[in-house]
Structure formats: structure tokens, C-alpha cells
Design brief:
Strand order of the largest sheet of chain E: 7-6-8-9-10-13-14
Bound molecules: adenosine-5'-triphosphate, magnesium ion
Structural class of chain E: alpha/beta
Shape of chain C: globular
Strand content of chain C: under 5%
Radius of gyration of chain C: 19 Å
Distance between the termini of chain E: 42 Å
Number of strands of chain E: 14
Chains: A alpha/beta, B mainly alpha, C mainly alpha, D alpha/beta, E alpha/beta
Strand order of the largest sheet of chain C: 1-2
Shape of chain E: globular
Number of strands of chain C: 2
Strand content of chain E: 15-25%
Distance between the termini of chain C: 45 Å
Helix content of chain C: over 70%
Oligomer: heteropentamer
Helix content of chain E: 25-40%
Number of helices of chain C: 13
Largest interface: A-D, 50 and 45 residues
Largest sheet of chain C: 2 strands, antiparallel
Structural class of chain C: mainly alpha
Number of helices of chain E: 11
Largest sheet of chain E: 7 strands, mixed
Order of helices and strands of chain C: HHHHHEHHHHEHHHH
């Protein structure tokens, strides 16, 4: 679905990505893990077009034929129109808009009012707390509620590819499980998911494929489960032992 | 006298209101005081004047002429505002500048427009042709100017239209979202350039309409747009984050001014208004229609 | 020669006022549209004391500065607790109120016809010395706990409170300091032009000063000084353009604000250290 | 008398009781964990203690002195330091200055000393600068002293928040999800860091976390909030065994590599 | 050889219409003098400085003119700048001939004339006394309502002597109303004047406010004559879009279109700019005439000689009247004004008028 070739990105003198290549298969979950500052968010931001690369190409390929791969545009709003939607790090909800308005903003590109309403109901069903808070200003939600809202807002756009940047940040363990279940479920609905996570255990556990990013480079890749059991990964990212 | 004063106050207030609504739109949505609105109003007032000179040869019904002039001014307002966005704000948004830069850019733009008009039309002033034969009608036993009533009706209409656009349409939602975070808004598939241009064009349209009314009431001169300061005061008093507050604020400001002029004279009025304003803000720090949202840490 | 000197003197006077705006807006992020009022207070109080009451110069100047600070206190006390956006409104209203007051007390201030025959005490050395002292004070302020706390408060008021900063007091102190500087620049102004009139002190002056501060650089003092010299000198250079003068000035400001968003100096300061760094970098570039 | 004693803390927003009659205490050198589902009122409790919101009801005693009703800055100066869940660093200042600013309110010099370039001013400035550097190196950020905080990755920004809170000289340190955005091995490191800091400064720590490892390893006592009310409290072992807590908050334990 | 004459006007800013008019008038005079061979073979050259209606700009501009060797300066249109310039010009010694009607510009507090400042039209006192005398002595109106811009020096200086004259002559000020800069709505004040039962309204202000007041007077039903200032002169009436409203207004102008001495300048101006000249054009023209006359009388073209010659000017026929500069006040003496009445948008001339008091 997504193919990234030799991506280089820098912020002035900081080289954030140095030649990252990766591939995301249609309908799969690809997890990206790595320590702070490895460049994970930068990678997602480059895909969305928020950050411009110095070098390298990003292709969107819907898998219908070998030659239908096309370059992803560089304006973020065009990227979204092609179905590649990012849920940004740190929630970034529209603080002064209500919960409901935030969700409607997510559905900006969907032109069918009926579908929007159905999607909205689905979101409220998934996280009933959001329904309770529908008229509250998003900025006053608790951290976790904001995170749920951010995820739902992304889903309202009916993405083909969903880029999730640390979706479990600040969520209660029980909700975290819910989020990973959701991720799995939307994958099963045919949506492709790129998942950036610090919660490496779980991220690897549900991933079809995974990459480890370090200092802007891919240092390891493989099937999720296999990385999970890789001693090097365990040592560096999983804290040696299991997290509760 | 009291009724007359109140009606005069409301008339004056509706002049302010029409300015304040356009001003408040940008203030509330993009979070800066768009002083270029003054320049836009001036230019549109002149554009309307030029249109009236040109069209009066072709149109004989003054009502038709008037509507055509209004439309021409509104259109030119939208276009100029779009140009202002392009020239003075777009790059700032790209570089994610703080609101004060918008303020500076807009105020400079306002001065520039004012000066361009001075160069184009000299600081001489002009009068619009008379569109209506009766200039005042009796109401509650006192005289009320026709233009004042139209202006009042128009500010209310503008307010309703704006509220509808902002709160009932997708573009409105986009405009409101865009002011919180330009980046994130793009992640929803919105094109912030488009949204902000739309917002400015709406306020430019309003600026065009106010320009014509200001020109009709107060004659045309390059500093006409400096009335925008009243719009600024009204929209802040009205409560940050509220457009209907701006209208109420404007009418209140107009009534207060007239009241003080009649009570203590125009000389002392600014002093009294300052004191009242301060007292008001201390008693009601959120403005007239603002809502308090406690900042969450 | 007189021409050059008068240009330098006016630039110096403006610079002292601009430093006040730098403190309030550049450092603290508050917006004042009423700085001209403090200038008027400084100018008028000193002029009236000397002319009408024959007070000697030094105490008259001291009293003028004190009066400007008192006014700053009056405006500041109720407003520092309000939301920031209101400060520009209150100061705007204050500015208009002061002008109205001056117009209405014609028997003391001469009203709209102004007050003339003020002794001309502002000379080039006086201005240069004043600029040096004011600049030194502001540099010290910026590089102390006060300056840092102001910047913190500008970034995030709530967090600043949570770091133990008494933001109300800080705003007030900064406001008073700026009021004193602006008042003093008003004193110098009156003592140079020998004539004061209320109409000269409108909110546009505050706007112009704010423009200068941000053309100079976000919170760079060096930039502020440079921009003051540049932007007060610019209209002189543009005299050839006659009626296009102001328009060209605006275009230049727009270009700087839009294409060099951080201002002329960005956040950098010209200090011995930075000069050395610049020199060494230039050496490095040379083959 | 406990170092910090909170009684009957209550706060509603509109109709929602965000915190409802919450009481707890913390001793010197103790680490207290606060957990609970999202929206349970944990951050609100912190905001109440630090004076961001006025309380509806309740009392907050630090070393026996009432804090309720005081201004935020007074509360901080009397010895309560905090970090923010949604990072709130001073964007306009460098990393080092961020920390210095937090220490500044304790600088006693006045304008007189400043304007005369007096000894008090110069001495204190030097002092503040060097202590700020010390705090930075404690959390391992000394390398970034001159950077702007917004250029740091998320995880490091959290550490800077901690350094800044340390510089306010707290008797009680409030950490709101300090480990969010760290990967498991970084979480490990972080746990070590908090332990060290506690040793070194001897303050009490209140920590809100959703990362169970942090809470379970560090705290001697855990309070569980749910819908603003205290659901349970006790030692980590007790909490782990509490069925209600598991159901409302932790969920079923989940294996991973073993599969 | 060239003789530099400075010209300080508002070229940008709200009052630039006047500035441009004065400049054009002065240029016409200079072209005429130069065409006739200049002054002893030396050509006059006008150097214009923009003052932006701002004291600070004016001081810089004056100093710049002095530095470049100007021997006289056609002065600023407004009194505030004149007041600020007086001491500076006194020191620099380059005379200023202006329209600063505030008498304080030309006469210092000590009662002595300001050495370098010369006024070339009736001072505000003279002008307002002409108007007051006309009001009470000719029109016989005794109950006066006054409306003026309290924040405008020009307006205030025209209001005070008027009120004093009326009171001294046994008249009554029925109501004194003010407004401030930027105000556009005067209905409240006008209504108060109506309530007070005034039988005329004295309104000494700029042309634009004049139009507004004229219109709003009708809206509040205030049906009394307006005694206006200079700014009611043409093109005022053509700018009131309702001819019904531009009615029953008295004003005084510096000249009459019918007077023969204007003809030449009038035609040159009209040929050059395709529009009728306004009174400021003639004032600009006359200022140059005055400077030339002072050169003759002072015996040379240096600044000091111009300054010395200026107070000796006597019975100089200008376009706006016969000029005699008083050495005691540096103001013209005994200048009469041409009175007009506006009826349904049309100006009707009532002849020159000068009160008994002014005739020496
Ligand atoms: N706007 C920026 N300006 C300068 N440097 C930046 C900027 N954003 C990120 N960086 C740098 O780029 C590198 C990669 O950052 P990135 O945010 O992609 O890391 P990350 O893997 O997402 O880390 P985390 O897990 O903490 O979110 C870091 O060294 C960071 O300091
Ligand atoms: N200023 C406010 N206005 C209205 N409601 C608020 C405000 N602050 C908090 N709330 C509500 O109070 C409840 C408690 O919020 P709080 O932030 O304390 O939760 P939390 O326990 O910190 O949750 P999380 O773990 O998700 O951060 C939430 O439902 C939130 O929506
Ligand atoms: Mg990241
Ligand atoms: Mg929280």
C-alpha cells in the first residue's frame, strides 16, 4: 500500500531520517518502534506531507496492478484526500471546539452526510465517554479522553491507510488493550495501519510486520512476533523484561 | 431626549456593529486584531463610489443603483481581503508566526491601503450620490436616519449569516478549527490556505458593505477606515470568542458614547468611557457574551 | 548639521520609547496601544511644572517620570489580572482618556492649542547619555531573572505561575518600568520641540513602536535598536519619494515582517561572544 | 503530622464531579502512586493541589499549613513542584533558561541591585546558572542546554519538565504521567532516576501513571480513583489483588513473547 | 545662480489637499518671477518638505531646509507646527511665512514678535472677529450656538475670540457644544443646540465635518443659519449631496472670484490642472509675492535680508487682498474678507467686510 524509498529528512542541522526505506502491505499492521528521537514521528509526518523530505520517494499503491503506484502529493490535505490519514502525536485536538465538532472536522473530506452520521454513532459506541462529553470543549477533556477523541477523529475520515503516532499514550491499561483491539479490528476491515508505539510489546504483538528505527535508520525489521522474541530488541526496547 | 439619545446611540452602534462583525470574525477565528480591515473598508468605499459614478449613467432606479453599488463594494472587498491574505498573512502562517506578527502585518497593510488611496484619490473627500430621497423618518416621536436603520438591519443580517456559515457549514467548521492548529487541520484534509482566505473574504465582503455605508454617512476620505478602532473596542468588549457579543458590544458602545456626549459632553466622554470599560471588565472579565473556559493544565 | 543632529535626537527619543514597548510586548507579550499616553504624561508634567510653577529641572523631570509610573500603576493594577487580550483595549481607552483630559484642562495644559515656550534643554549629549543609560538598564533587566520570567510568562502563563512566578507582580513591575522609560522619552521630546499638543499622542505611535520591535527581532534588543535607527531614519531617506513615502515605508516593513519573520536579528544579540563566533565562522568559510 | 495531608478534595465542572471527596496523605521521602481510568480526576486533583483551579471543598495541608485558597505561585513557593501531563515548557527560552526560570523566584535581589549591577545580582545569577546545569545533568539533558525545548523529542521534553520542577525546590513533587512516551527500557531508566532523586532530595513524590510498572515498582502506597471517588488504596500487592481495580482499570493480563 | 525657497507642507496624510494647493500656488508664482528674469538674475527654486502634519517631521524638515541653504520658507499650514518652529527658526534665522493663524506663533508670550515667523492671512483672532462682528452687527443674530472640535487647535483658536466678541457685543452663547477628533455623529450636540433655542450655529471647522454637520443639521431638524469657517468655501457646497441641506450658510473667503487681481493666477491654474483653484492656491501664491517683496525691501536675497525686509512690507497688492505686515505682531493688518451666503447649494457674494475695530 505504501512504499518508501531512501527517505532523508533533516531539521536544519539535525538529520532526523537517513535513508529509510520500508514497505507497508495492504491490509496489514506495520509497527515502528525505536527510542526517543529515533525519527518515528518524523517518518509519519513526512508521509503526511507535514515535513518535507530532502531526498527519497513515497509511493501509494493500492495493489490493483504493478504500475498503479503513484507518488504521494506533498500537501498534507491532498494526502488525506487519497485516504492516508494521520493521528498525530500528543493528540492535538482542537481545544476550543466541542468533542462533536472535533469529530465532524475529522469527517471533512467525507461528503455523504448519512455516512458521517453512521460513523459518528460508531465512534460513540466504541468510546461511550465521548458521547457523554459530546458538547464539552475538547481542551478540557482528560488526557486519555483527548487521545480517544484524536483516534476517532482520524477514523471519521474513513482512511485507507491510518498512521497512528503513539495512540496508547496516556491511556489506562484497560483502554490501551481496547485501542490495540480496535487497531486489529480496523485492519480486519481492510484498512492498512502504520503504528508508531512506545508500548513496544503490544505493538509488536499485533504487528504483521515491524521495523526498528534508530538514529534515523532502520536497524532491524521482521515479522512482529519474531522481533518480539529477538533478544536484541528485548534488551533495548522491551526493558529486558515484561511490562505489566 | 432620552428616546432620541437611545435611538441615536443604537444608530451609531449599528455603524460600529457592521465594522465589529467583520473585525470580530477575524479576531475570533484567527486570534488577531485585523486592522487591515480599516484599509479594506476605505478601498471598498472608494470602489463603491467609482461604481456609483459609472453606473449612475446606466441605471435610473436609485434602489437598483444602490444594490449594484453595494454588490460592487462587497465584491471588491472580498477580492482585496483575499489579496491581503496572500500578501500579508500567508507567509506568516507558513512560518507559524505568533499572532503579533499578524497584527503588525495587518496594521501596516491598513496604513498602506490608506496611503495608496490618498495617492490615487488625493486626501480630498467625496460624497456619494443620494440614493434615498427621504433622509430621516419619524419613529417613536423622534427622527431616525434611513441609512442608520438600514445599517442596523444589515448588521443583524450579517450577524445571522455569519453565525450560520461558521456554525452550520463545513467550511465554517474548518475555519474555526484552522485557528487552533494549522498543521492538524491539514491532517483532516483541509486546506488551511483556502479556509483562511475564505474567512478573510467573508470579512472583506462585510468590510465592503460597511465601507459603502460609512461613505454614505460620513463622506469619503482616506482615513475613513480608522473607524475600525471602534470595531476593535466593540468586539473585545463583546467577549472574545463571540460574534454576537461583538454586535451587542457595538450597540452598547454607541449608546454609551451618545449618552456621555449628552451628559458630560464629547470632551469628557472618552474619560468616562474608559472608566466604565475598566469597571465593566473587572466585574465581567469575559466580556459581554464570552464564555469562561477554565484553562486546563 | 542641525538637520543631522535633530534626526539623531528624534531617533534617540523614539528609541527610549521603543525600549518600553520592547519590555511590554517583546519580552512579556502584552500589547499596549496606549504608550503614547505615558509619553504625554511625562512631557506635560515636566513642561507644566517648569513653565507654570517654576520648578527646577531635575525635580520636574523626576516628578514627570513618577507621574508616568503612577499612571502605569493605575492602568496596570486592574488589568494584569485580566486576560491578556484586554490589555490592548484598556490601554487604548486610557490613551484616549488622557488626550481628552489634556484637551479639557485648557487652563493648565493649553488644551488643543498646546503648550508652547518650553525651554529647549534636550541636546545631543543629553540624548546620547540618556539612551546609553536606558539601554543599559534594559539590557540588565533582560538578562536577569526578570527578563527570563517575562519570557516564560509570555510563553505560557499557567506554567509560569506553577513555577512560582508571581505573574501579576511581574507584569506590573515591567509595566511600570516601561512607563518610566516612555515618560522620560516624553520629557526629552517636550524639551526638544519646546511645544506639546495632545493630538501628537495617539495610538498609532504605540503601533509604530510595536512594529519597530518586531521588525528588529523576536526578543533581540540589538535588533530593536537597529530597527529603531533604520525605521526612524528610513522616512528621511525616502523624502525623494514625496507622496509615495509612507507607502514605500509600509512595503519595506511588510517585506521584512513576511520574509524575515524572526525580524532583522531573529533572537540573536550582538555581543562580544556572538561577534567572535561570526568572525570565526567567516574565517572557516574562507578557503 | 504527615508532610502533605489532603482531605475531602472536591471539584465539579458544570454537572460533572471530577474529584469527589478525595483524601490522602504523603510522608517525607515517600512515593505515592495515583492511578485510575481516563477522566477519573487524577490531573484535576493535581490542579487543585497546585491551585490551578479553586477547590469546591476540602483542605490541603503542607506541613500543617493550609494551601487551599492560595495563589498558584505561593503554593509552588511553599514547596509543591509539578510537571504537566500535556507538556508545557517555555518555548521562548532555552532548555537551560527553562530550568533557571523555575529557580528564579527564590532569587532575592531587587531592581536596585540589578540596576547598579550589584554583587547580590551577579552572585545569584551565577548560582542559579550552575544549579540549573546541575539539575539538567541529573536528568541527562546537559548536552541540550542551549537548544530550544521544542526541538527535543517528546521523551526528552518530559525529562526537562522534571528538571524544571526540581528547580522549584519542592518538598512534594507532583509528576503527571512522567513516563508517557518512553519505551519500556527507558521506563526502566526512569524508575531508577526517580528513586535516585528521592534519595537525594528527600521529598515526597506523587506520581500519576498508566504504566503499571512505574507505579508498582516505585510507590509504597497507591490510591485508585474512579469517577472522582477513591476506589481503593493500599500497597502495590494489595492493589494488584483487588478485583474491582483490575476490572475497572487494568484489565486482563496479557502475554506476549510466550505465544 | 539659484535662490532656494523652502516649502513645508503636508504632502502625505490627511491634510495633503491643502499642502498640494499651497505648493501649486507657490510654484505658479515662482515660474512667473523666473520667467520675468528672476531676482537680479538669480532663479528661484522651491524645495518642498513633507511635514505629515507632524511636529517632529516639521522640525527635521526645517533643519534640512536650513542646511541646504534656503533663504525663506513657505510655512506650514497649521499652527501647532508653527508654534514648535518659532524658537528654532528664531535661532536659525531663516524666516517662515505661513498660514499659522494662532497669534501665539507670531507673537511670543513676552508680547514681542517671534523674529522669524510671519503670518500671511488674518490671524484666528482677526478672522473670528470678522465672523462675530458679521453675525451680530450685520445679521443681527444674538443667540449663538457653538459647535467645535475641542481636540483641534485650529477650531479652538477660531472659537475663543468669536465667543468673546459676541459676549462683549451684548450677544448670548445659547449653547457651547464640543466634539473630538474622529467623531462623525453630531446629532446629539445639534439636538442640544436646538433645545437651547439658538438662532444661529457657529461652526469653525474643516470641510469634511462641515459637510457632516450640514447633513445632520437637517436630520435633527435644526433650522437656523450656520456661520461657517473658511472651509465652507468652494468646493464645499458641491460636496453636500443634498442641495436642500446646503442652505442658509454664511462664510467668509479670502478673495472673490470676481476680483480682477485673481484672474491671471486663476487662468494659469485652470490651464495647468484643469480644475478651479481653491483659496489655498492663492495663499501659496501670495506667500511667494511677500517673500519677493521682502527681498526688495531688505536689500538682498540672504535669509537675514529677507527677514529684515518682511516687517517693512506695506500695501502689497496680492491676490487675496492688500497686504501690510505689522512690525509689532508680524501679522497682516486690516485685511478684509469676502462674505458669502450659500443658498440651495449656490454661493451668493455679499461683498468684502472688515469690522470697524480692525480699521486703523
Ligand atoms: N521541529 C524540529 N526541529 C528540530 N529538530 C527536530 C524537530 N522535530 C524533531 N527534531 C529532531 O529530530 C529527531 C527525530 O525526532 P522525532 O520526533 O521524529 O522522534 P521520535 O522517534 O518520534 O521520538 P519520540 O518517541 O520521543 O516521539 C530528534 O533528534 C529531534 O530532536
Ligand atoms: N476545565 C474543565 N472543564 C470541564 N471539565 C473538565 C475540566 N477539567 C477536567 N474536566 C473533566 O473532568 C474529568 C477529570 O479530568 P482529569 O483530567 O482530572 O482526568 P485524569 O484522571 O487526569 O485522566 P487521564 O488519565 O486521562 O489524564 C474529565 O472527564 C474532564 O473532562
Ligand atoms: Mg514521536
Ligand atoms: Mg490526566
Amino acid at each position: 500500500m505504501l512504499r518508501i524509498e531512501d527517505l532523508w529528512v533533516s531539521y536544519g542541522h539535525v538529520q532526523a531520517l537517513s535513508g529509510v526505506s520500508l514497505e507497508v502491505k495492504r491490509g496489514s499492521i506495520v509497527s515502528i518502534i525505536g527510542s526517543n528521537g529515533a525519527g518515528k514521528s518524523t517518518l509519519l509526518n513526512t508521509i503526511s506531507g507535514l515535513v518535507k523530505q530532502e531526498r527519497g520517494k513515497i509511493f501509494l499503491w493500492d495493489g490493483t496492478g504493478p504500475d498503479t503506484a503513484k507518488l504521494l502529493p506533498r500537501e498534507p490535505y491532498r494526502v488525506v484526500k487519497l485516504g492516508v490519514v494521520q493521528v498525530p502525536e500528543g493528540r492535538q485536538v482542537f481545544a476550543g471546539l466541542t468533542v462533536r465538532e472535533n469529530l465532524m472536522a475529522g469527517a471533512y473530506t467525507v461528503n455523504d452526510a448519512g455516512r458521517v452520521r453512521r460513523n459518528l454513532d460508531r465512534m460513540f459506541e466504541m468510546y461511550p465517554i465521548l458521547k457523554e462529553r459530546a458538547r464539552q470543549q475538547a481542551g478540557t477533556l482528560s488526557g486519555g479522553e483527548q487521545q480517544m477523541l484524536a483516534i476517532c477523529r482520524g477514523l471519521m475520515a474513513e482512511p485507507k491507510v491510518l498512521l497512528l503516532d503513539e495512540p496508547s499514550l496516556g491511556l489506562a491499561p484497560i483502554i490501551v488493550k481496547g485501542v490495540f483491539d480496535t487497531v486489529r479490528r480496523i485492519r480486519d476491515e481492510g484498512i492498512t495501519v502504520v503504528l508508531v508505539e512506545q508500548n513496544a510489546n503490544q505493538a509488536l504483538a499485533i504487528a504483521d510486520y515491524a521495523y526498528v528505527l534508530e538514529n534515523g535508520r532502520v536497524v532491524l525489521e521482521g515479522a512482529g512476533r519474531s522481533l518480539l522474541c529477538d533478544p536484541a530488541v528485548k534488551d533495548a526496547y522491551l526493558g529486558g523484561a515484561q511490562e505489566a | 431626549m432620552l428616546v432620541q439619545n437611545i435611538l441615536n446611540g443604537i444608530s451609531l452602534g449599528s455603524v460600529y456593529a457592521l465594522i465589529a462583525v467583520g473585525f470580530a470574525l477575524i479576531f475570533n477565528v484567527l486570534k488577531f486584531s485585523n486592522f487591515s480591515q480599516g484599509g479594506v473598508m476605505t478601498v471598498t468605499a472608494y470602489a463603491g463610489y467609482v461604481a456609483s459614478r459609472y453606473l449612475s449613467e446606466h441605471l435610473d432606479s436609485s434602489l437598483v443603483l444602490f444594490s449594484a453599488v453595494l454588490a460592487a463594494a462587497a465584491l471588491s472587498g472580498a477580492l482585496i481581503a483575499a489579496a491581503v491574505e496572500r500578501l500579508a498573512f500567508r507567509r506568516l502562517r507558513r512560518t507559524k508566526s505568533e499572532p503579533v506578527y499578524y497584527f503588525i502585518s495587518s496594521i501596516t497593510m491598513g496604513i498602506l491601503l490608506e496611503n495608496l488611496i490618498t495617492i490615487y484619490a488625493s486626501s480630498n473627500f467625496y460624497s456619494y450620490p443620494r440614493f434615498f430621497t427621504t433622509s430621516a423618518v419619524p419613529l417613536f416621536g423622534v427622527n431616525v436616519a434611513v441609512t442608520d436603520m438600514m445599517m442596523f438591519a444589515l448588521s443583524i443580517t450579517a450577524l445571522l449569516a455569519l453565525l450560520f456559515i461558521l456554525y452550520r457549514t463545513k467550511i465554517g467548521l474548518g475555519i474555526r478549527a484552522a485557528c487552533f492548529d494549522v498543521n492538524t487541520v491539514q491532517l483532516m484534509g483541509m486546506n488551511p490556505d483556502f479556509l483562511v482566505t475564505m474567512a478573510l473574504m467573508i470579512s472583506g465582503t462585510l468590510g465592503g458593505v460597511s465601507g459603502v455605508f460609512l461613505g454614505m454617512n460620513y463622506t469619503l476620505y482616506p482615513q475613513l477606515g480608522q473607524m475600525v478602532v471602534k470595531g476593535f473596542v466593540a468586539s473585545v468588549l463583546g467577549g472574545l470568542g463571540s460574534i454576537h457579543g461583538a454586535v451587542i458590544g457595538a450597540v452598547l458602545l454607541g449608546v454609551l458614547e451618545i449618552f456621555f456626549i449628552s451628559w458630560v459632553g464629547a470632551g469628557w466622554a472618552p474619560v468616562f468611557i474608559f472608566v466604565v470599560m475598566l469597571a465593566f471588565l473587572l466585574v465581567r472579565p469575559r466580556g459581554i457574551a464570552g464564555v469562561i473556559v477554565q484553562e486546563k493544565a | 548639521m542641525d538637520y543631522f543632529i535633530s534626526t539623531v535626537i528624534f531617533t534617540g527619543i523614539a528609541l527610549i520609547g521603543v525600549l518600553g514597548v520592547y519590555l511590554i510586548t517583546g519580552l512579556t507579550g502584552l500589547f499596549s496601544l496606549g504608550q503614547a499616553a505615558f509619553m504625554a504624561i511625562g512631557g506635560y508634567v515636566s513642561a507644566v511644572l517648569i513653565r507654570n510653577y517654576s520648578v527646577p529641572v531635575v525635580p520636574a523631570v523626576a516628578l514627570a517620570i513618577a507621574a508616568a509610573m503612577l499612571a502605569a500603576l493605575l492602568v496596570g493594577l486592574p488589568t494584569v489580572r485580566l486576560r491578556r487580550d484586554y490589555i490592548s483595549l484598556v490601554t487604548l481607552g486610557f490613551g484616549e482618556a488622557i488626550v481628552a483630559l489634556l484637551n479639557n484642562s485648557a487652563n493648565i495644559t493649553g488644551g488643543a492649542m498646546g503648550i508652547s515656550g518650553i525651554p529647549q534643554l534636550t541636546t545631543l549629549p543629553v540624548v546620547l547619555a540618556s539612551v546609553a543609560v536606558c539601554l543599559a538598564l534594559v539590557i540588565l533587566y533582560k538578562n536577569s531573572k526578570y527578563g527570563r520570567q517575562c519570557l516564560a510568562l509570555r510563553s505560557d502563563e499557567l506554567a509560569a505561575k506553577s513555577m512560582g512566578i508571581n505573574v501579576y507582580r511581574l507584569k506590573l513591575v515591567t509595566f511600570l518600568f516601561a512607563g518610566a522609560l516612555t515618560g522620560y522619552s516624553g520629557v526629552l521630546f517636550g524639551f526638544y520641540t519646546t511645544y506639546l499638543e495632545p493630538a501628537a499622542f495617539n495610538w498609532i505611535i504605540s503601533a509604530e513602536w510595536t512594529i519597530i520591535v518586531f521588525v528588529g527581532g523576536v526578543n533581540s534588543l540589538t535588533g530593536t535598536v537597529l530597527a529603531t535607527i533604520l525605521l526612524t531614519g528610513l522616512p528621511e531617506f525616502l523624502r525623494f519619494a514625496s507622496e509615495w513615502r509612507v507607502a514605500i515605508y509600509c512595503v519595506i516593513v511588510l517585506l521584512i515582517v513576511n520574509y524575515r519573520t524572526a525580524g532583522i536579528m531573529g533572537e540573536h544579540e550582538l555581543s562580544p561572544k556572538s561577534v567572535r563566533r561570526l568572525l570565526s565562522r567567516m574565517k572557516g568559510v574562507r578557503p | 503530622m504527615s508532610l502533605l495531608e489532603v482531605r475531602g478534595l472536591t471539584k465539579s465542572f458544570g454537572g460533572v464531579r471530577a474529584v469527589d471527596d478525595f483524601s490522602f496523605s504523603a510522608e517525607k521521602g515517600e512515593i505515592v502512586g495515583i492511578i485510575g481510568p481516563n477522566g477519573a480526576g487524577k490531573t484535576t486533583a493535581f490542579n487543585l493541589i497546585t491551585g490551578v483551579y479553586p477547590l469546591d471543598k476540602g483542605s490541603i495541608l503542607l506541613e500543617g499549613a493550609e494551601l487551599a485558597g492560595k495563589e498558584q505561585f505561593e503554593i509552588t513557593r511553599s514547596g509543591i513542584g509539578r510537571t504537566f501531563q500535556n507538556i508545557r515548557l517555555f518555548r521562548g527560552l532555552s532548555v537551560l533558561e527553562n530550568v533557571m526560570t523555575a529557580a528564579d523566584p527564590y532569587s532575592e535581589y531587587g531592581l536596585l541591585s540589578l540596576f547598579t549591577f550589584g554583587a547580590a545580582f551577579r552572585g545569584r545569577e551565577r548560582e542559579v546558572r550552575s544549579t540549573a546545569r546541575e539539575y539538567l545533568s541529573l536528568v541527562g539533558l546537559d548536552r541540550y542546554a542551549d537548544e530550544k525545548p521544542s526541538n527535543l523529542p517528546y521523551g526528552l521534553q518530559r525529562k526537562l519538565e522534571i528538571a524544571r520542577a526540581l528547580a522549584t525546590g519542592p518538598k512534594v513533587l507532583l509528576l503527571d504521567e512522567p513516563a508517557a512516551g518512553l519505551n519500556p527500557s527507558e521506563v526502566r531508566e526512569f524508575i531508577g532516576l526517580v528513586g535516585d532523586l528521592r534519595e537525594r532530595f528527600g521529598f515526597a513524590v506523587l506520581v500519576i501513571e498508566h504504566r503499571m510498572e512505574v507505579i508498582m515498582t516505585l510507590s509504597s502506597c497507591i490510591y485508585v480513583l474512579n469517577f472522582g471517588k477513591l476506589l481503593a488504596s493500599g500497597t502495590p500487592a494489595e492493589i494488584r489483588a483487588n478485583k474491582e481495580v483490575t476490572e475497572a482499570y487494568i484489565g486482563k493480563e496479557d502475554g506476549s513473547c510466550s505465544v | 545662480k539659484e535662490i532656494l525657497i523652502g516649502n513645508m507642507q503636508d504632502i502625505s496624510g490627511p491634510t495633503s489637499v491643502w499642502g498640494n494647493a499651497v505648493t501649486r500656488g507657490a510654484e505658479i508664482a515662482i515660474e512667473k518671477i523666473n520667467a520675468a528674469g528672476g531676482i537680479d538674475g538669480a532663479m528661484l527654486k522651491l524645495v518642498t518638505m513633507d511635514t505629515k502634519a507632524n511636529v517632529q517631521e516639521a522640525i527635521k524638515g526645517y533643519n534640512s531646509l536650513v542646511s541646504s541653504g534656503a533663504v525663506a520658507v513657505v510655512g506650514p499650514p497649521v499652527s501647532n507646527i508653527g508654534l514648535a518652529l518659532a524658537p528654532i527658526a528664531g535661532k536659525a534665522g531663516v524666516p517662515v511665512v505661513g498660514s499659522f493663524i494662532d497669534p501665539r506663533v507670531t507673537v511670543g508670550e513676552d508680547g514681542k514678535p517671534q523674529a522669524a515667523m510671519f503670518l500671511m492671512q488674518p490671524s484666528s483672532v482677526q478672522y473670528s472677529e470678522i465672523m462675530a462682528s458679521y453675525t451680530i452687527d450685520v445679521l443681527g443674530l444674538r443667540k449663538v450656538g457653538v459647535l467645535y472640535d475641542q481636540s483641534n487647535a485650529f477650531a479652538v483658536s477660531l472659537m475663543k475670540p468669536y465667543v468673546e466678541y459676541i459676549k462683549a457685543a451684548g450677544g448670548e452663547i445659547a449653547s457651547e457644544q464640543v466634539y473630538t477628533k474622529g467623531d462623525k455623529d453630531f446629532k446629539t450636540q445639534l439636538a442640544k443646540i436646538r433645545e437651547a433655542g439658538a438662532d444661529c450655529l457657529y461652526f469653525p471647522n474643516y470641510i469634511q465635518e462641515a459637510v457632516l454637520v450640514t447633513n445632520q443639521r437637517k436630520q435633527v431638524g435644526l433650522d437656523i443659519p450656520i456661520i461657517g469657517g473658511l472651509d465652507f468655501a468652494p468646493p464645499f457646497a458641491s460636496l453636500v449631496n443634498d442641495p436642500e441641506a446646503a442652505d442658509n450658510i454664511y462664510l467668509a473667503n479670502n478673495f472673490s472670484e470676481k476680483e480682477p487681481q485673481l484672474k491671471e493666477v486663476w487662468d494659469i491654474y485652470k490651464g495647468k490642472y484643469g480644475e478651479n483653484p481653491v483659496n489655498k492656491v492663492f495663499l501659496g501664491y501670495d506667500k511667494i509675492l511677500l517673500i519677493r517683496e521682502a527681498m526688495k525691501l531688505g536689500g538682498g536675497t540672504s535669509a537675514a535680508q529677507v527677514m529684515a525686509g518682511m516687517p517693512q512690507v506695506k500695501d502689497l497688492q496680492g491676490t487675496t487682498g492688500v497686504l501690510t505686515i505689522s512690525p509689532e505682531t508680524h501679522q497682516p493688518v486690516g485685511l478684509s474678507m469676502v462674505m458669502y451666503k450659500i443658498e440651495k447649494g449656490a454661493y451668493a457674494e455679499l461683498g468684502r467686510y472688515v469690522p470697524e475695530k480692525h480699521k486703523k
